[in-house]
Amino acid sequence: MASYEIIGSREKAVAIVEISEDERKRQKEIVKEIMRRHKHVKTVLKKLSERKGIERIRSYRILAGEKNTEVMHVEYGYKLFLDPRKVYFSPRESTERQRIASLVKEGETVMVMFAGVGPFAIAIAKKQTKVERIIAIEINRHAVKYMKRNVKANKLEDKIIVVLGDVREKCQDFYGKCDRVVMPLPHKSELFLDIALKCLKNGGWIHLYVIKKEEDVEGFAREIASAINAKEYFVKRVLPYAPRVNKYCIDFRL
Ligand code: SAM
User: Fold this and answer.
1) What is the chain's pLDDT, residue by residue, as a tens digit (254 residues)?
2) Any atom of ligand 1 within 6 Å of the Cβ of 238
3) pTM value?
4) Pocket test for ligand 1, best of 51, 185, 189, 193 (most atoms within 8 A of CB)
5) Nearest Cα to 112, choosing from 153, 160, 72?
6) How far is ligand 1, taken at its centre, from the CA of residue 43, in Å?
7) Residue located nearest, by CA, to atom 20 of ligand 1
8) What's the gap between Cα 3 and its chain centre?
9) Cα 15 to chain center, whole Å?
10) Residue 118 carries which DSSP code?
11) E strands, the chain, where?
């Protein structure tokens, strides 16, 4: 069976399937089987590309079902409205979002760069109800529209500030105001470390996401820690990405 993931709720979900050249002849059968197994799947999308461009979105083809692929996804009790054809979203990262949320202390101001439809910001605000403020910056207009809707749907308007724009420009308003910076843009987060450091008040935490080979990650983390003068750092493997290559989060304490 081809690998697939499901995004959405019991009422309506979308299945995203990866079909290799070898499996192409069985494509119709695969789609039928997914829809038979998961009655709530209303559309089956086939991945046509890797994630690409600044917005990290794939191309898809609808193999079966409805054209409207907007869904409401629920994780850890909070709602996320989104359309996987217009925004980045990965349900497989929900455990990592909970890990970050559980690190946040009372009274913190948190900067979430590259915020997407808001899953990190919402996970944090739901888990640490005494967080002072979360600033969530995102460049994709569709994602920002969904993030605003998600903040409202989860009644977090008093905690989360949603900002449309480029992190490099929009963070300036928050320099020296944050206790923690989350940087979930694994292919090039490190290029924004100068901005993250400026966002911090007087020390704090930076959570930097990277894709690295197993044998390279420790050296990379050590180098960055030394470059930014981190007091300590921890490397956490988040998800497998390719053979011997993983997505990691490196937590730096400044
Ligand atoms: N944090 C979200 C999540 O976990 O679902 C989205 C992560 S996705 C890997 C990275 C996001 O960063 C995309 O939504 C993309 O549009 C956004 N992005 C990329 N470059 C950006 C920039 N310079 N400023 C603001 N957002 C940016």
Assistant:
1) 789 999 999 999 999 999 988 888 899 999 999 999 999 999 999 999 989 899 999 999 999 999 999 999 999 999 999 999 999 999 999 999 999 999 999 999 999 999 999 999 999 999 999 999 999 999 999 999 999 999 999 999 999 999 999 999 999 999 999 999 999 999 899 999 999 999 999 899 999 999 999 999 999 999 999 999 999 999 999 999 999 999 999 999 99
2) no
3) 0.96
4) 185
5) 160
6) 25
7) 54
8) 20
9) 18
10) S
11) 3-8, 13-18, 41-47, 60-65, 71-75, 78-82, 109-112, 133-138, 160-164, 178-183, 200-213, 232-242, 245-253
- Tokens representing 52 are 């690409």
Residue type, 25: K
CA distance 63 to 2: 14
The finding on whether 185 has its CB within 6 A of some atom of ligand 1 is yes
Q: Which two tokens mark 200?
A: 């911090």
